Structure formats: C-alpha cells, structure tokens
Amino acid sequence: MTGRFVKTLTISVFIITILGIGFLILFPNAWDPPSNTVIPQSRIIVPQELMHELIEASLTEHHIWAEQMIPKIPLEDGEILITLLNHDFNGNLHEDQIIAYRNLLEGENTIYLTLIEYDPVIREYRRIWNASTAATRPGTVSLYTQDLIGDRGICILLFGMNGLGENTLTIFRGIDPEETGPPFNKIAEIRIDGSIIIREVERSQAYQLGLVRGQSHSVIAYGRDWGSSNIMDQVEISYNYSEEERRYTQTQITSIPGARIEQDRVQNLLGNINNFEEFINGLWYYISPQGTIDNRQFIYFDPSNKEIIFYDAETQQIYNWENSNASRLGLQIRCQNTSVSNMRRTINIELESLDSIRIRIEEDIRIRIGVAAPWDGSYRKAVPQVQVSQISPSINAHISAVYDGTMGRLRLFPDGSFELTTGGTIRQGNYAFFFLDDQELLELRSIENQVNREIYLVESIETEPENSSPRRIIGLSRIRLGARGIQRLHEGTIILNLTAEY
C-alpha cells in the first residue's frame, strides 16, 4: 500500500507540474502585476573600490537634488520653471526658495526670479517677491548665491544670455533685517558681447571666523573694443561695489590687444557653432601668462561624444557637454560633471589666434568639492590639424602601408582609416600620426568604440631615404597622454616591419 501511495503521489505531482508549466506558457500575463502596482526593486551594487563609493554617493546626491528641484507652491499659468535654489533666506529656520522662471504668455521671453517663503502665521508657503533679469535664454541660466560684498549677506547671481547673444549677469542683494521694503534689491545688471566672470579676492582668516568684514569681489566683463578696427581687440571692464550707491559701478576699462587674423577665417569660425566646435575638437594645453607650457593641465573637447575632460596634475574630471551657444568671439558651453551631477560649469571660449583659444570658466556653485584648478587662461592645441608633415618631414599624418608584427597585420590607408588583423579578428577604425613636445605619436581609435583610444610613441628604427615613404621598421610603445604629458605604460615595444606599400 505504501509503495502504491508513493507512486500515485509522484505521478500526481508530476502531472500538476506539467499543467502549471503549460498554464504559464499559454497565459503569461495572468501572473503579471497590474500596471499601477509599484514593485520594490533591489539594487545590485558592483564593488569597484573607490569608484563604487563615488558612483553611489553621486546617485544618492542626484536623487536628493531632484527632490529639491520641486517648487514649494505651484507656479501660475504660463510660468515654466527653469531652475531653483533652496535656502533659509530670512533666518526663520524654514527652507525658502528662489525660483528662476519664464512666462510663456509674454513675448519678451524675460527670465524672472521669485521668492517663496514660509509664513509661520498661516503655516504655508507664499510668494512674496518677483523681479526681472537681463537673461532671456533658459538653456544658458546659472543661478547661485554668494557673499559678494564681504558682509556675510546673501547675494543672488543669475548668469545667462539674451536674444542678442550677449552674456548677462543680474545680481540681487538681500536687505538688512532692520530695513523695510522688498527682500532683495538689484545691485548689478550687466550685458556685454563677451564673457563675464567674478574675480574673487582672498579673504582673511578673521573673516572666515566671523570677526571682521571681508573685501568685496569684483565683476569683470570682456567685450569688443569698438574703438579699434581689429575685431579681435577687446576691453576689460571692471565693476566694484560702491557703498555710497549700494550697487556695482564701473571703475576701470583696460584695452586688450588681440591677434590680427585673416578676416575670412575669422568669419568662417565665429557665429557658426558647428565650425567652432570642429575647431576646438581635440586636446588643448595650458599656456601660462609668461608664455610657458604647463604640461600638468589639459582640456580635451570631444563634440561628437558630447564630452569635455579636464586634466589637472593627478586628477581627471569628465563633464557631459549639454549645449553650445554662439558668442561674439566663440562659444559658451554648459556642461555637467558625470560623477557629481550637481556640479555644472559654464565655459566661455574665445578665439585668440588660429591655434590658440582663451577660456574663462564660471562654476555653478551649488556644491564645492575641494579646490578648483585655475582653468582660466590661454590654451594651445596639442595636436595640430593642419600642415602636420611640415612639423617633421619623417612621416605624414596618413600613409599607405601594411605592417606585420607581434600585434598582427596593420593596414594603414591614405584616407585615415586602418584595419588590424589579429588571430582571425579584424578591427577597424581611424588613425593619425601627430606630434607633441617634438615626439611622434600614433593614435588608433576603433569604430566600435570611439571613446576607446590607443596612443603609441613612434620610435624610428630604420628610415627610408625618401621622407615621403613609409619607414621599413618602426617601434610602437604604448603610452598614456594625460595631465603629466606622455607617460609610458611599460608594456614593451611592438616591432612592425613594412611588408607592402600601395
């Protein structure tokens, strides 16, 4: 009896299992939850040493920041949120908001600021102040607070651009608690066809401890010198805070001579976003005010992948290239840090000559991590895109040759493409020979992954008498091109023998 019972039970379980599997195959949606059901999702965290901690902190910070970007009260009809700041502006221990918005019902596209404060009497948030700014283009807006005057008071700064392509800066200062009237007064409104920066002064330790007042920061604007016939000539206009007028006033104008460049080349670059992005594409190294090269500081612009990389000493910062706006002498770029989403930069790039640019960076000071490098200054292109063969006659940027070696068979085509065959695997992409610090380099970039680049130091082992011909034997040493210049990876030299020309 016992054996028959076990046998019957086994058959029954088998039949029920088969029927259950068949039911799931025929009616898979019967077990799906309703579309409005929220299912808790577990996170799978892959440990990657410090990178794991950075990514995790960044994601948490991003979620917190996204939650904070919600207005305390709804905006009115036609008003569209651009950005906002959360801060206790009146010291009542309740978080207030400054909101930048535009009104679609207006034709001027003016960007406004409004203050939303908590009212402890009615225990609700209410809107108590509105003011216009000089900006009209939402994608260029940067909003933050800073103690500009040095009295530990709050100043609200809104950078942006207007419809004429001018850079603008509007500054509001909070009133003293004893004063009556609007909570903020406008103390500066600057428009210029160049760039605007805050020139910060170093403040004493006594100021940091709250014992004394600090010196006011200056506002510096760069624009065209309309008294000069050279379009590249500029003026530097300084604005300083006046205690008597209680606003920023113009104090000094300084002429900055620019390079004289062929006007047709200038017109081809300026005002055309695509042309200027193509011009700045690549690696740029910093030139000190004394004219010396700083191999510790680079900026790499990659318009195709919408990426900007800052190299400084031992650090590397990667920013997503959000948008570009044409300015009088170049571009204004808005970018966001890929690791810390709250860190944003506005990069003003101006043409200085046909192989150099001038960069001024404004940080969106929602969050500060460490001490920022002094990125402002002149930069020269590390990889010349024109007349490469004139720098050194040993080899051209593109050649026609087939090399065999330990890495496989490398075919180099005159159109700048390559084909590498290794163990039956074919890899294709683009290549270029170029020079940095009088050393010849070869870059290979795969089609499958344009971000994956291999850079080699080219060492001439045997050279043909004719400079235009490929060399018979070359050695390639893998290197990293970074903040400290050329760094060997010590992977051994790859010997390549020329086997064919075409």
Describe the structure.
Strand 21 (401-405) and strand 22 (408-412) form a beta hairpin. With 502 residues, this protein is mainly β. Mean pLDDT is 78; it is low at 30-57, 366-373 and 384-395. The chain is flat, with a radius of gyration of 30 Å. The longest helix is centred in the first third of the chain and has 25 residues, at 2-26. It folds into three domains: 69-256, no CATH class; 263-381; 388-501, Lipocalin (Beta Barrel), CATH 2.40.128. The protein has six helices and 28 strands. 14% of the residues lie in helices and 47% in strands. The strands form five sheets. An eight-stranded antiparallel beta barrel has the order 13-14-15-16-17-18-19-20. It has an eight-stranded antiparallel beta barrel with strand order 21-22-23-24-25-26-27-28.
In short:
By secondary structure, the protein is mainly beta.
Q: How many DSSP E strands?
A: 28
Q: How many strands, what sense, and barrel or not for the largest sheet?
A: 8 strands, antiparallel, barrel
Low-confidence stretches: 30-57, 366-373, 384-395
| Terminal residue distance | 88 Å
Spatial strand order of the main sheet: 13-14-15-16-17-18-19-20
What's the gyration radius in Å?
30 Å
Portion of residues in helices?
10-25%
State the shape: flat
Task: Summarize model confidence as the mean pLDDT.
Answer: 78
Secondary structure layout:
Elements: H1 2-26, H2 49-68, E1 79-87, E2 96-103, E3 111-119, E4 124-132, E5 142-146, E6 155-161, E7 167-174, E8 184-192, E9 195-199, H3 205-208, E10 218-224, E11 234-242, E12 247-256, H4 263-269, H5 273-280, E13 282-287, E14 293-302, E15 307-312, E16 315-327, E17 330-337, E18 344-353, E19 356-364, E20 377-381, H6 388-391, E21 401-405, E22 408-412, E23 417-422, E24 425-436, E25 439-446, E26 453-462, E27 473-482, E28 485-501
Antiparallel strand pairs: 1-2, 2-3, 3-4, 5-6, 6-7, 7-8, 9-10, 10-11, 11-12, 13-14, 13-20, 14-15, 15-16, 16-17, 17-18, 18-19, 19-20, 21-22, 21-28, 22-23, 23-24, 24-25, 25-26, 26-27, 27-28
